Amino acid sequence: MNPCRLLAPCPRLALALTLAALSSPASAIFHNGGFETGDFTGWTLEGGVNPGLVGAPPFTGASVQITPGAAGPANVVGAGADPRAPTIVLPRVGQNTARLNDENGGALVTRLRQVDTVTAADIDPLDGLPHIRFAFAPVLDDPSHAPHEQPYFYVVVRNLADNSVLFEQFAYSGQAGVQFLSGAGSWKYLEFQDVDAVLPATALGQQVELTVIAADCSLGGHGGYVYVDGFGSAPVGPGGGNGTTPTAVPATDPLALGLLGLITGWIGWRAQRRSAGNA
Predict the structure, then answer these.
(1) Degrees (nearest 5) of the Cα angle 261, 29, 231?
(2) Superfamily (CATH H level) for 27-252
């Protein structure tokens, strides 16, 4: 009988177990980032009424104003296609994608937020820096109102330690310079945009806030909504809505690294003994 079966794991098995520990998925930033619970657990939903954007183009997040009110419409959707945006295939990843606001108008605003802390699990081993990754796809009616009255979307990632903006994107429907695709009727949309926000190393241990806003036109007759999915530090994964779940960034476990060193040394010692015995 092979004594290694009685006294300790065989070298190949032990090595395999150690490598598995080294590459085990880490708990990355944003709870329920793929909405795989089928709801908005871990997220804050807010809303109100869109009174129109402040100022004149080019608009920024500072242009957004919301008359406080009830949370806007939001739901989690599964597989399917959008009748107003025919090349968007759902879900983006996993089994579910969230949709903020809807097509019905009413001057409604839906805002999704989550605050979380950047940890070592969010570091991408390729560059040694923490990342925030996600995907979004806005679908906006285009009634050709004045720019400040149009449906719009806004996405921002902010470091709460100093209120700095780590990522920001805003556009109103039909905005010049934004490569909107033409959907059904007067609808305009963007296919899923995969965001990879690279954070500075100093962000470790700090809190970040992610906010997504979808708004109807301020006059009330035209809708606007945004699909969001894949929030985390791992790459969002292949496109096409093929149900591929994002893979978590591997965590480097110091205990596992030490164990790997011991096992590697033991395997080398065994090989030397075997070689000496055969000499």
Answers:
(1) 125
(2) Galactose-binding domain-like (2.60.120.260)
